[in-house]
Amino acid sequence: MSSESLISVVDDDASVRTAVLSLLRSVGLKGLAFESAEAFLESGELTSTRLVITDIHMPGMSGIDLKQTLDARGSKVPVIMITARSDASVMERALACKPSCLLKKPFDSDELVACVERALAV
């Protein structure tokens, strides 16, 4: 994995953002954190982002909405979705957007790193 790979972490939970950024740094990757999908989209960082890791359930725009927005804009940036909820309708909607990975919280660090490696290898 290249340290040039910028990963944007979008989650309304500060502890999750901090933990994911720390994990990314531990494997030599650079990440930026955003507290909402709107903040990420308004940041101008999409052009330098190689991968988005987003929570599904957030106030305002959800991770599913973010993925659909990126797709509508023609973005090919892979998206990893994470969620604490596992109700069938949400999981079905999330999988319909074709994320690179869909992980349930709490997820294993090695599992997330493997998803990141696969997404960046494409």
Give the SSE order as H and E letters. EHEHEHEHEH
Helix-and-strand structural type? alpha/beta
Principal-axes geometry comes out as globular
CATH fold-level assignment: Rossmann fold
Uncertain spans = none
Domain Response regulatory: 6-120
Pfam families: Response_reg (PF00072)
Protein name: Response regulator
Modified residues (4-aspartylphosphate): 55
How would you describe this protein?
- The protein is α/β, with parallel strands linked by helices and 122 residues long.
- It has one domain (6-121): Response regulator (Rossmann fold).
- Helix content is 43%, strand content 21%.
- Strands 2-1-3-4-5 form a five-stranded parallel beta sheet, sandwiched between helices.
- Strand 1 (6-10), helix 1 (14-26) and strand 2 form a beta-alpha-beta unit.
- The radius of gyration is 13 Å and the shape is globular.
- The termini are close together.
- The mean pLDDT is 92.
- The modification 4-aspartylphosphate is found at residue 55.
- InterPro entries: Bact_response_regulator, CheY-like_superfamily, Sig_transdc_resp-reg_receiver.
Features:
122 residues; 43% helix
Secondary structure: elements and pairs:
Blueprint: E1 6-10, H1 14-26, E2 30-34, H2 37-43, E3 49-55, H3 63-72, E4 79-83, H4 88-96, E5 101-104, H5 109-121
Parallel strand pairs: 1-2, 1-3, 3-4, 4-5
Give a concise summary.
The modification 4-aspartylphosphate is found at residue 55. The chain is of the alpha/beta class. Helix content is 43%, strand content 21%.
